[in-house]
Specification:
With 211 residues, the chain is an alpha/beta fold. The chain folds into two domains: 179 residues, Aldolase class I (TIM Barrel), CATH 3.20.20; 28 residues. It is 28% helix and 23% strand. The strands form two sheets. Strands 3-1-2-4-5-6-7 form a seven-stranded mixed β-sheet. The radius of gyration is 19 Å and the shape is globular. It starts with a strand and ends with a helix. Bound molecules: iron/sulfur cluster (SF4). The site of iron/sulfur cluster (SF4) has 13 residues, from loops.
Length: 211
């Protein structure tokens, strides 16, 4: 069983191609400045089996890959490994995983933990905790201490460090999500844009009322 915070289908902001993303609930790292602090507490969020989750992730035939993020994916490694295996029975996908652990620490986990099973499915692992003072506004990782490990050749041609950062606004189930690694300053820019848009709509509505 997976305990997920959210999932999304069809993003171009968290890796090459068109991807579906699974964000798991619960993370032991509690990095200051974490982009998703509501997903840190280890509490039940949305409990779902990999079998039940998979159809929504693959419903679009354009999907070329999965991204696992969080929260901390390796706290749910056995279930995510199972999800990855099921997905690959359906389609030849690449898999990217973000983690707050270091690769060398993951490799020391016992075999029964499921950690090695997930590592065996992951093509690119982006490891290490987020350090906001090392956020250099560069690439597909949150801060400069995080390392992009190509565990297979599958995405060897993708330069994760020199990709421009992208963030998409998704509206799903009545909620608004920022998907991706936001460029530095995006939050302020977004707030200003939303405030201006609301002001414009309000002034147009008021103009219509008075004309
Ligand atoms: S590892 Fe990631 S999800 Fe966990 S607290 Fe740090 S930034 Fe947030």
């Amino acid at each position: 069983m997976l305990n997920i915070a959210a999932s999304c289908r069809g993003t171009r902001a968290l890796g090459p191609g068109v991807r579906s993303v699974v964000w798991v609930q619960g993370c032991p790292f509690r990095c200051p400045g974490c982009i998703a602090p509501q997903w840190i507490p280890a509490r039940p969020a949305h409990l779902i089996t990999p079998e039940a989750l998979l159809p929504s992730l693959l419903a679009d035939p354009a999907i070329t890959g999965l991204t696992f993020s969080g929260g901390e994916p390796f706290l749910q490694s056995a279930a995510l490994a199972h999800l990855a295996r099921l997905a690959r029975q359906e389609r030849d996908l690449d898999i990217i995983c973000f983690t707050g652990y270091l690769l060398e620490d993951l490799q020391r986990f016992p075999a029964r933990s499921g950690v090695h099973a997930l590592l065996a499915e992951v093509d690119v692992l982006i490891d290490g905790p987020y350090r906001q003072e090392e956020n250099d506004n560069r690439g597909l990782r949150g801060s400069a201490n995080q390392v992009v490990h190509h565990l297979t050749d599958r995405l060897a041609d993708t330069d994760f460090l020199n990709q421009p950062r992208r963030a998409e606004i998704h509206v799903q189930d009545g909620s608004v999500w920022v998907v991706g690694i936001p460029p530095v300053g995006m939050e302020t820019q977004l707030n200003q844009t939303i405030r201006k848009a609301v002001k414009d709509v309000w002034s147009q509505a008021s103009h219509h009322l008075h004309s």
